[in-house]
User: Fold RING-type domain-containing protein from Thraustotheca clavata.
Amino acid sequence: YGITALHLAVAFDDLDMIALLLRAGANPNLRSVSASTPVDLASKKARGIIDIETLPHLHKILPQFLNQSQNREIDMTELQNKVAILQQRVQELEVSNICTICYEQTKDTVFNCGHETCTNCSKLLSNCPNCRKPITARIHRFV
Assistant:
């Protein structure tokens, strides 16, 4: 649930990281909370890498499509740093999407002032917990 490191690598079009994650066993068919797979979000180049990495026989059939960066020796410390950064971004995104009132549910209700909480907490509030403006409208956002 949520987004994976592969989703983030695809979102940032980090081709080296996409290849590394796929070689390490990342599943390009996992769906995020918004029901999108990494393939759905991928650029044309990233889709090519996903195809090549998930269909090993393409390495022999279509060598002209292999990215030069895939053929060079990978500096593991550099890639480990990138993985750590992506993991940190995933955690930051997950934390930023949690309701600041109950810390249990996902933010899915937006007030007219632009601030958000989960549906359950929004029903209990008459003023925005962030800016203290009266809540006159609640918009349910599907996440």
Q: What stands out?
A: Residues 10 and 41 are 7 Å apart (CA to CA). The longest helix spans residues 76-96.
